[in-house]
Amino acid sequence: MRTTPSARRRGFTLIELIVVMAIVALLASIAAPRYFNSLQRSRETALHASLQVMRDAIDQFAADKGRYPDSLEELAALRYIREVPEDPINGGREGWVVVAPPSDMQAAGQVWDVRSGAAGRAADGRLYAEW
């Protein structure tokens, strides 16, 4: 059985493949920056939430015990927080910067506030270390 030229199946030409690849590359170049920006925004939101939870736990500890905790691990050991959270910007639990109580307060304990030890600036221009 012979096939006629109109009955033969045609494949894609090289030009058609290049055009499709160019369209895919253009769409990817538009979507990729938005994806990475949303990842950074989610890390910043997680950092805000972690700082708020730890600061609330420090305040609750101080109200209950009449002194500030000596470490973040003490907060976790006494179940004010389940565990010391991971800094979403640094990616580790050891990156937190502990702020001691001001000298004029004359309060016992070492942890009055906590900040991120991450270098760099957030999307709003503030340093992570100032949050």
Verbal overview:
The protein is mostly helical and 131 residues long. It contains two helices and two strands. The protein has helices at 14-65, 72-77, and strands at 96-99, 113-116. Strands 1-2 form a two-stranded antiparallel ribbon. The model has no long low-confidence stretch (mean pLDDT 91).
Outline the fold blueprint:
Elements: H1 14-65, H2 72-77, E1 96-99, E2 113-116
Antiparallel strand pairs: 1-2
Helix run count: 2
**Share in helix:** 40-55%
Beta fraction: 5-15%
Spell out the helices and strands N to C.
Answer: HHEE
- Secondary structure tally: strands: 2
Which regions contain 5 or more consecutive residues with pLDDT less than 50?
Answer: none
How far is it from the N-terminal to the C-terminal residue, by CA?
Answer: 78 Å
The Rg value, from CA coordinates, equals 27 Å
Q: Per the principal axes of the C-alpha atoms, what is the gross shape?
A: elongated
Q: Specify the structural class.
A: mainly alpha
Summarize the biggest pleated sheet.
2 strands, antiparallel
Strand order of the largest sheet: 1-2
Query: Mean pLDDT across all residues, rounded?
Result: 91
Compact overview of the structure:
The protein is mostly helical. The chain is 44% helix and 6% strand. The chain has helices at 14-65, 72-77, and strands at residues 96-99, 113-116.
Short descriptors:
two-stranded antiparallel sheet; single chain; mainly alpha; elongated; 6% strand
